[in-house]
Specification:
The structure holds 2 protein chains of 2 kinds. By secondary structure, chain A is of the alpha+beta class. Chain A is about 55% helix and about 20% strand. In chain A, a hairpin with a 2-residue loop joins β7 and β8.
Chain lengths: ~400, ~280
């Protein structure tokens, strides 16, 4: 009995009881589809987290003023601020060789107005290096410049959400005057959309020279709410962090451990997030595996029923000379065909479901999940079929022939 | 597939042409065969020392009431069961030495089974049923189809090859079973109450077919409890309580004049009747 004949025989067996076979297949189908969909959801959500962390910037450290307020040591000044001196020192490549750029940041919230249209937006006062460090690109016009910073020019780059809220579509905002609070600013550039990152809308932003923001909006405090430090590469980001920390510690006459600022390292944030989303994905995978296991039990159950039902057929086959191995492979192939059919349809169903957003997460198909799910379906068939097939093959022909 | 061709004389399991033992030239040689079962802690003897030699070309009916041990004997002769003690040579092969796989092989190559309940596979057409043992023997699809067609032709079902068992009468199904039994050209055709589920007309029809096979030189062993059916055999062996109590040669009924007339009348009736489809 060749392989082809066995497969044809198995298909005939399956189709003779098509409703039962279909329901059995459904178990495997759901399991396989669940593996693909849940792994895709896991991958999709971890990619979303990585994307929102990446939207903070590329290889960046963020130094927040007034982070830690430990007061058990007298050395720590409670009114420590981030000053222009700090910016200069960190920006000096002799002091911090692994720092690419440092951008002082003053942020405030203002209502932007243009011809009656208003939009409440966050305003970032910074230097030109802030844009590349935060992954902002200019889609039209120009970036704020160092000259603008020096001359306290009242110019702004508008985020895409602000642009679309203030200006009617089709109009050219470049060169127009918008009001931030009570001051007038000229639009010199438009920022390309970064897309919604999940954590915050990076497009609801207005970027202006920090000098102008201090003049017009926040007042002359000479201190910054944060410093955005860009490292030269992701591998040296930790080095850059320690350089920045020791400069700030020296400036504030304290030690790195007692630094009155908190430093957020994007790389370590990303790796933490990545490892937690990996755990999440693995968990989803196990849930899917459980549903596949249930499918496997279904296949085994039905194969046992099939063997019992066809005891007489087995008896006839053995009496006219079917060796054990042929009976074994006949039922094994039948189980494998059932679970493979379920597997194929399950993969297709999974591919369809993955196209839709699930609970706000756009699933991203993990390519390894298809061969994985398919391979597991095959194994399910083999393992679920093995015992029933062995039982069939071990039947004594005289007992099987006598079975009614 | 040398086993399927009627290579005579056959080789025994040692690969030598048998000469020494009387039984070696015979198709069946049973020597003091005992079958003992355990039932509720007691030993139950189904056969208590049966010795029987069936030479090539005989048509033997084994008769006995239920409980006489004839079913056990049929299982042993058919290599479906192994004797507790004693010896059995089938076509020169010592059955006691064989394992499960070899027994399957022997059943496949040397025995053609015809059962009381027809035992065709319902999901296969007539020709596929006839092909099945040849498929297990490893014959190519083309060869087994050709042989299956010849066999079905022999039993007069050339026009029903594609029919499924459910589409055929009992007599036709049993003829398919005979076709399946003879297609492999076995050393022995073993029939277990072949007419048990058939009406009188089909019984006569079927028994004539066995008689024909016998006249072509085939060895037929038939288990039955009906005297009418046993009358077609050339030899009748009677069993009681697991031992042989009678063993007679006789002139089969189809060789007698009154039977020929009887069969002709029955055949005429058959021809007039529409076959159920």
């Amino acid at each position: 009995m060749n392989m082809m004949g066995n497969v044809v025989m198995a298909l005939r067996g399956i189709s003779s009881n098509w409703l039962r076979s279909l329901l059995t297949m459904l178990g495997v189908l759901i399991g396989v589809a669940a593996v693909i969909v849940l792994l895709a959801v896991g991958t999709g959500s971890s990619e979303a987290v990585a994307k929102s962390i990446n939207s903070l910037g590329t290889n960046t450290l963020t130094v927040f003023s007034g982070g830690r307020t430990t007061s058990q040591t007298g050395t720590k000044s409670s009114n420590a601020t981030l000053s222009t001196t700090d910016v200069k020192l960190i920006g000096d490549s002799n002091n911090a060789p692994d720092v690419q750029s440092v951008s002082p940041v003053i942020s405030t919230n203002e209502t932007a107005t243009y011809k009656g249209a208003t939009y409440s937006t966050s305003v970032i006062g910074s230097t030109p290096s802030y844009l590349p460090a935060s992954n902002y690109t200019i889609s039209a016009g120009r970036s704020i410049s160092s000259a603008d910073v020096k001359s306290h020019a009242q110019v702004v780059d508008l985020g895409s959400t602000v642009t679309s809220s203030l200006f009617p579509t089709g109009s050219n905002p470049l060169g127009r005057q918008i009001q931030l609070g009570s001051s007038e600013f000229t639009v010199v550039g438009l920022l390309a959309s970064k897309g919604s990152s999940g954590l915050s809308n990076g497009d609801a932003v207005v970027i202006a020279p920090y000098t102008a923001v201090q003049d017009q909006l926040t007042g002359q405090s000479q201190s910054f709410s944060e410093l955005l430090v860009q490292g030269k590469s992701s591998s040296t980001l930790t080095l850059a962090q320690s350089e920045v920390e020791s400069i700030l510690a020296a400036q504030n006459n304290t030690t790195v451990a007692n630094l009155p600022f908190s430093v957020l390292n994007q790389a370590s944030l990303l790796s933490t997030a990545t490892s937690s989303s990996k755990t999440f994905t693995a968990l989803l995978g196990w849930v899917a595996a459980v549903s596949l296991l249930v499918g496997a039990i279904g296949v085994m159950n039905i194969m046992l029923v099939t063997v019992t039902e066809r005891t007489r057929e087995i008896g006839i086959r053995k009496a006219i000379g079917a060796p054990k191995s042929v009976v074994l492979s006949q039922f094994l192939i039948e189980a494998v065909v059932i679970s493979m059919l379920g597997g194929v349809i399950g993969v297709l169903a999974g591919l369809v479901v993955v196209r839709f957003k699930i609970d706000g997460v756009q699933p991203v198909l993990a390519t390894y999940s298809i061969p994985l799910a398919f391979g597991v379906a095959l194994l399910v068939g083999v393992f679920a079929g093995l015992y029933p097939a062995y039982r069939a093959a071990s039947l004594r022909p005289i007992d099987a022939l006598r079975y009614e | 597939m040398t086993v399927l061709t009627d290579g005579n004389p056959r080789m025994n399991s040692d690969g030598k042409i048998g000469t020494a033992n009387v039984g070696e030239r015979a198709v069946i040689a049973l020597a003091d065969v005992v079958k003992r079962y355990q039932m509720g802690g007691h030993d139950v003897f189904a056969t208590r020392g049966v010795s029987l030699v069936v030479p090539r070309g005989e048509f033997v009916a084994i008769m006995g009431a239920s409980g006489s041990g004839k079913s056990t004997l049929m299982n042993i002769i058919g290599c479906l069961d192994i004797p507790t003690s004693g010896h059995y040579r089938l076509d020169g092969v010592n059955i006691r030495d064989l394992d499960d796989r070899e027994l399957s092989r022997i059943r496949n190559r040397k025995i053609g089974f015809v059962f009381q309940g027809f035992n065709l596979l319902a999901r296969m057409s007539a020709v596929q049923n006839v092909e099945l043992p040849m498929a297990y023997a490893g014959l190519k699809a083309k060869d087994r189809r050709a042989r299956a067609e010849v066999a079905l032709n022999t039993v007069g079902l050339a026009d029903r090859m594609g029919h499924f068992p459910s589409e055929m009468s009992g007599g036709q199904q049993q003829r398919v079973a005979i076709a399946r039994a003879i297609a492999t050209n076995p050393a022995l055709i073993l029939a277990d109450e072949p007419t048990g589920n058939l009406d009188t007309t089909s019984t006569i029809d079927l028994m004539s077919m066995f008689a024909d096979l016998h006249s072509q030189g085939r060895t037929v062993v038939m288990i039955t409890h009906e005297e009418d059916v046993a009358a077609y055999a050339t030899r009748v062996v009677r069993l009681r309580d697991g031992v042989i109590v009678g063993d007679h040669q006789r002139v089969p009924i189809h060789a007698r004049d009154e039977h020929v007339a009887h069969v002709q009348a029955a055949t005429a009736r058959l021809d007039d009747r529409e076959m159920p489809s």
